[in-house]
Amino acid sequence: MQKVLRRTALAKAQYARKAKQRSERLARESHRARLREERGGVHLAHKDIKLARLARREDWELGPLAPARNVGDAKESYGAMEMERVRPVELAEEKRAKFWNIVENDRVVVIEGRDKGKIGTVKSLEKKSNMLVVTGLNMSKADVKVPEFLLHSEVDKRPVRSFELPLPLTSVRLVHALKDPETGVTRDVIVKKIVNSRIWFDKHTGVRRWSRIIPGLNVKIPWPKTEPREYKDYEIDTLRADVEKRTWVPTLLTPPTPETVIDELRNKYSVFRHRHDEEYVAKKIAEDDEKAKKKNMTEMMRTPLKEANRRERRERKKMGKGTLTREMLVRIGEVMAKSPSTSGLIACSRHTERVS
Q: What is the mean pLDDT of residues 39-54?
């Protein structure tokens, strides 16, 4: 049984080690991908600048003989930027905002930039880059090329458009209508700071919920209303009547689940399993006892070599401990004097005896 427990512990440790290595590898890959994306945007900008300088030089040198560049495939998109240049760069997981108190359909005001002081509605959120898009604000100065796959899926077929560029989350503030307690007039107020209430975690949906509160006033800001999602019915969908129809009723003689479902869920032969059946535990304990008995039998078994060693130990015990006589000490000293490694040590000891 100890072997089974040791195997389970080793399997868990190995899995934890591999999981840690996998997470570190994914973190490195995501970091490299972000660097490649940043470098790709810079490369596109440098490429556009280089082409623009070349075109300007050709126009100056050739004059009326300069080639027309707004023809062919670039007839409608010449001079527009690529979509990759306006796409925000993703941030690392630890740098992203955990709680978003500004969501879609909220009214916000821009506090910096060319649209400073303007109020708009949040169109979408870029949670991976801590940015958001406000309807009608921060429009791109240059036109942007629309990829072909978007043209096929949208009603608007213009290959070049002007988009709302994302704004940093720190560049906007929430606008909320509050009633003045003195005058009773309701007017829009810029909320500089928002705090979260107690967070509820729904274990069924996996969604975190909380309330937005203005500190100091203890005013709860309601979340914007969202339209319910529409679901379309298809011919292959299962009818609700068929789903709710009861086709089997369990009884005392027929349990609702088969007896082997536990083994199917826990994987009876998995190395990670640490809860076993009583029969399996008893079997492993019996195997351990059998191995221990065999080990004791091999130790107690008498062989000619063991008998000879036992007899030799018995004879040495009868002789007792030996003592060093004076003649033995003199002989040892003579041998040590002949040895070059100990001659210096003996001479030093004799000199010490004369001095003392």
A: 86
Whether residue 347 is predicted with pLDDT greater than 60 in this model: the reply is no
- pLDDT-derived band at 175, boundaries 50, 70, 90: very high
CA 238 to chain centroid, in Å, comes to 37
Q: In angstroms, rounded to a whole number, what is the distance separating the alpha carbons of residues 130 and 112? A: 16
Question: Above pLDDT 90, what percent of the chain?
Answer: 11
Nearest residue to 87 via CA among 134, 36, 135, 126? 126
Task: In whole angstroms, give the CA distance from residue 48 to residue 82.
Answer: 10
Phi, psi (5° rounding) for residue 216?
Answer: 90, -45
Half-sphere exposure of 280 (CA within 13 A, CB side): 11
Q: What is the pLDDT of residues 73-119, one digit of tens each?
A: 777 777 787 877 778 888 888 888 888 899 999 999 999 988 898 99
Cα–Cα distance, 83 to 144 (Å, whole number): 6
Give yes or no for a contact between 219 and 178, defined as CB atoms under 8 angstroms apart.
yes
Residue 351: pLDDT band with limits 50, 70, 90: very low
What is the tens place of the pLDDT at every residue in 217-239? 888 989 998 888 888 888 888 88
> In terms of Cα–Cα distance, which of 170, 168, 167, 33 is closest to 93?
33
Half-sphere exposure of 200 (CA within 13 A, CB side): 7
Strand runs (DSSP E) across the chain, as ranges?
Answer: 107-110, 119-126, 131-134, 144-145, 160-161, 167-168, 172-179, 186-191, 195-196, 200-202, 207-209, 212-214, 219-221
Q: Report the C-alpha gap between 194 and 189 in whole angstroms.
A: 13
Of the candidates 165, 170, 172, which has an alpha carbon nearest to the alpha carbon of residue 88?
Answer: 165
Rounded Cα distance, 105 and 121, in Å: 6
Q: How far apart are CA 168 and CA 95, in angstroms?
A: 13
Contact call for residues 86 and 144 (beta carbons, < 8 A): yes
What's the residue count for the chain?
A: 356
